[in-house]
Amino acid sequence: MFLTLSTTGTPDRPATDLGFLLHKHPDRAQAFSTSYGTAHVLYPEADAQRCTAALLLEVDAVALVRRGKGKGRGGAPDAALAQYVNDRPYAASSLLAVALSAVFSSAMRGVCAARPELPSQPLPLRVEIPALPARGGPGLVHALFEPLGWRVSAEPVALDARFPQWGDSRYVGLTLESRTLTVAQALRHLYVLLPVLDDAKHYWVSSDEVDKLLRAGEGWLPDHPEQKLITSRFLSRRWSLTRQATERLELVRLAEADDSEVDAIDNAVEAEAETQPKPTPLAELRREALVSALTRAGAARVLDLGCGQGQLVQALLKDPRFTEIVGVDVSMRALAIAARRLKLDRMGERQAARVQLVQGSVTYTDARLEGYDAAVLSEVVEHLDLPRLPALEYAVFGSARPRTVLVTTPNVEYNVRWESLPAGHARHGDHRFEWTRREFRAWAAAVAERHGYDVAFLPVGPDDPEVGPPTQMAVFERRATGAGNDDARGADAGRGEETADEAEQTAKADRSEKEAKAA
Predict the structure, then answer these.
(1) pLDDT, tens only, 200-238
(2) pLDDT on residue 317
(3) 3-state secondary structure of 127
(4) Helix 227-234 with 183-198: angle, nearest 10 deg
(5) How far is Cα 70 from Cα 356, in angstroms, rounded to an integer?
(6) CA–CA dist 482, 484 (Å, integer)
(7) Rounded-to-integer distance, Cα 3 and Cα 495, Å
(8) How many whole angstroms separate alpha carbon 242 and alpha carbon 229?
(9) Which of 402, 381, 388 is nearest to 451 (CA)?
(10) What is the pTM of this model?
(11) Which of these, 328, 323, 318, lies nearest to 300 by C-alpha position?
């Protein structure tokens, strides 16, 4: 990514004063480490008549992927490749805005200890960005920058100059010019509007983004005609943060109109006490639903397959109806954490006799897991690659064959209700897939049919009338005929043994007859 900031000088004010404002000496090239790569500051030209500071950001694609955890593996089949092959190293975005803030932090605040009179002086400024994503086209670029006093040139970049019939890309070559703005104002405009035009943030957007927006937007954002769009896009369309920012911007606007302080306006009405209780976390609702289903099934000996750090095992231990609880996980580290959570080393003898933590995989048959009343697969199936599901199916339903099996998994339809989850992304970085309600029910019905179970479905969490619950649960109950079939297999085996005895007696009689004839 590349950006240049230029100014011209006069006999009274040389252009090289830009070095004082940016706190970067024109005679030196400097490099700064960022979370995503290296930012270089250099001056292609620096004399009394004209001075240009350039910011070159080298993006480390691998570091960008590593810091982008939690975006999941769902979505397009080429999502894994798209993490590395994209426009991030070349096109101005939130990464460049973060670099501006980090490298020119003093300049953005309007601080210059060496020349304190300079930051408040407007300068003839020219900003050039060769490649700027503009979701909204050149028209939106003009609508965002022109009300702030910039003369704007936003030239669309062709998809391919050799094939003009293909049309323009979503990128523009941007040039901004102004003679009425300070360097601090220019940098704050860029800090806010670059990610707004790209319409994406490449880092986690939390509540402190509201404070960043208000600081950078001080003096210009409250009255900007595109304030709503700027606020929404800068905060990644998170409605709660957008509402919070909008309310605070309105207070600023009212305070300016009233020529008073924001605090005075904000305190004019007493804040109402928060009476609404905090919503119960989904993980807790899921555990409550599982414990309730196991209780209804009358299960006493329970397997928690993929127990993780032992939260469900801990909940089951609190209920004396569960006489034996076995947590199984492939990760020794997770089992060690579960042991610490349960305080196994300090647990009483009677309580310790009820719980066991075992290393094992849900995709392999294991004789230790046979004969239990119930098995739980809570948020497990989505962590397996789809080709591995038949192995899990046979290991649990075909080999272990507990009387009851509970399976919970995310409902991908509900993801649109998570305001912080980008479209097309899974809820967790390790999810190989996430099912719709129809897909989950089809899989569960097929498994039940193949292995002699009946299956019912229950919602976990608020059941949205349009997209369903956040978590979906299948309750498998082994059919009574399955036990009859087992008895039939035992009877067949018994008949086989009887036939073998009869054959042995017949052989003995034949031998006796032959011995008698020989005598």
Answers:
(1) 766 667 777 888 888 898 889 888 999 999 998 888 888
(2) 94
(3) strand
(4) 70
(5) 31
(6) 5
(7) 86
(8) 10
(9) 402
(10) 0.53
(11) 323
Q: Residues 155, 159, 165, 167: is their CA dihedral positive or negative?
A: negative
333: amino acid identity, one letter: R
> For residues 98 and 93, what is the distance between their CA atoms, to the nearest angstrom?
9
Burial class (CB in 10 A: 0-12, 13-18, 19+), 137: middle
304 forms beta bridges with 327, 376
CA 11 to CA 49: how far, in whole Å?
8
Mean pLDDT over 264-281 rounds to 57
Say if residue 505's pLDDT is above 50: no
Q: Are 400 and 369 in contact (CB under 8 A)?
A: yes
List of residues 6+ apart from 28 with CB closer than 8 A: none
- Please choose, from the candidates 456, 466, 377, the residue with its C-alpha nearest in 3D space to the C-alpha of residue 415: 466
Measure the CA angle with vertex 256, ends 219 and 101; round to 5°: 20
CB atoms within 10 A of CB 424: 12
**Strand pairing partners for 408?**
378, 473
pLDDT score of 140 more than 50: yes
Q: Which helix (H) or strand (E) holds 171?
A: strand 168-181
Q: What is the pLDDT of residues 422-437, one digit of tens each?
A: 666 788 888 999 999 9
Using an 8 Å Cβ cutoff, are 477 and 403 in contact? yes
Residue type, 287: R
* Residue whose tokens read 């294991």: 366
Give the amino acid at 496: G
Residues 6 or more apart whose CB falls under 8 angstroms from that of 356 comprise 324, 325, 326, 327
Tell me whether strands 37-46 and 30-34 are parallel, antiparallel or unpaired: antiparallel
Asked whether the beta carbons of 495 and 307 are under 8 A apart, the reply is: no
Residues 236/225, Cβ–Cβ less than 8 Å: no
Our measurement of the distance from residue 410's CA atom to the centroid of its chain's CA atoms, rounded to an integer in Å, reads 14
What confidence tier does 42 reach under pLDDT thresholds 50, 70, 90?
Answer: very high
Q: Which residues partner with 405 through β-bridges?
A: 375, 476
Residue with tokens 């080999």: 399
